[in-house]
# Entry
Amino acid sequence: SQTIHQWPATLVQPVGSPLSLECTVEGTSNPNLYWYRQAAGRGLQLLFYSVGIGQISSEVPQNLSASRPQDRQFILSSKKLLLSDSGFYLCAWLSPPGLAGRRYNEQFFGPGTRLTVL
Amino acid sequence: DAKTTQPPSMDCAEGRAANLPCNHSTISGNEYVYWYRQIHSQGPQYIIHGLKNNETNEMASLIITEDRKSSTLILPHATLRDTAVYYCIVRVDGSSGDKLTFGTGTRLAVRP
# Structure
């Protein structure tokens, strides 16, 4: 079966510090991977998505970046955090066609990382 | 992807049906309607999706109007555990990147 992991679960960082959030998926290959952010009381905002190793598409301009060094690993980074970067960060993957036991194109979300920038 | 419009909040009594509307007047012919929900502090969870026919599964029913410009998610017997934010999304299956763009959704409160 497929699982998605995110860590850490919670993080408190000072303004100007770097950030690295990691997401890994098990049990599938070549998944589409996504990073979302949800600010307090707001909807989900798509930040980045990736259809393969080294392929990153950015949805919104910001001081965050994403990388996909391996097929099932997706990393969200920042060199200098801003107060506005606080939020709930979710990684997700999309089930490809033909994956046993999964609906085609159903998106599955990780447990999330709650980031507070002080 | 076409945009959707949902009421910001709704409530219903436990045990009654919850009917959550969604407008997607600019939907294209090859776009599906998806519904997800997000319980507090968790990632969104898939509920149901459809193209033009009504759909039903173990969680909910999806009613899509004939012109496909709106849809309704029906939770037939709402429980307190159904309290969540419900997102209606439209997108083309199989499109490059397969992006899911979430709006602000409808916050459903199920009261005892």
Chain A has a mean pLDDT of 88. Chain A is about 0% helix and 55% strand.
